[in-house]
Amino acid sequence: MNDAILSRNDVKMKGSGKTSIIFAPGFGCDQSVWNAVAPAFEEDHRVILFDYVGSGHSDLHAYDPDRYQTLEGYAQDVLDVCEALDLEDTVFVGHSVGAVIGMLASIRRPALFSHLVMVGPSPCYLNDPPEYYGGFEEEQLRGLLEMMEKNYIGWATVFAATVLNQPDRPEIREELENRFCSTDPVIARQFAKAAFFSDHRENLSKVTVPSLILQCADDIIAPAAVGEYMHKHLPYSTLKQMEARGHCPHMSHPEETIQLISDYLKALVI
Description:
- By secondary structure, this protein is of the alpha/beta class.
- It has a single domain, classed as Rossmann fold (3-Layer(aba) Sandwich), CATH 3.40.50.
- 41% of the residues lie in helices and 16% in strands.
- The chain contains ten helices and seven strands.
- Helix 4 crosses helix 5, helix 4 runs antiparallel to helix 7 and helix 5 packs across helix 6.
- The protein is globular and about 45 Å long.
């Protein structure tokens, strides 16, 4: 066990099951976003939570702008944590860009993972008509980065509302906004650039680990067309349409998120 890596990524472990399940946050968030979901799996799994370097309570001194200018750097964080804990055949649950990070890690070291659970994933956020609708035009994403640079607090307020897309849930919007605001603005902007301007569509066919795609309703960040595209191009994938709205079902609809993940994992052992 590599204590330096566990400290660097603020790794937390709970539960005593034989199977390990690792939860990865999405952009701008830390491991606490899984607080309403992860405990439900502690009875039957060893639950592992972590922060990417630069997020949450990770070691900020370990942040390397060169390493984290692409999602591959964050995928290496996942691999480092798995290797530090001597994991194999692990269930990986990732939200949003965290799902794609896990996918990249699985391509490099497939033996470490038994299954991927991808919550609101997107391999590419940019529209590429007529074959692909990612949800955003390039000028929209460049405007997002510009706003992050000029008015980070204002960006956090707007982006949290956009991501959640549930005006009737102000308490969750505020929680998400606070998470964005707790991240160093320079690091958050670089992460945003790595996430929103990446295109991993060609990597989908390289995945050999079976996966569950959870697609939310009215998801502005990862529209339904993206979930359908991923299901079509991702080998051994299962697509489940959620009743949950917005982009953060693990925060806004934890019960449904738990149920769908549990049903998928239970079906594997029948």
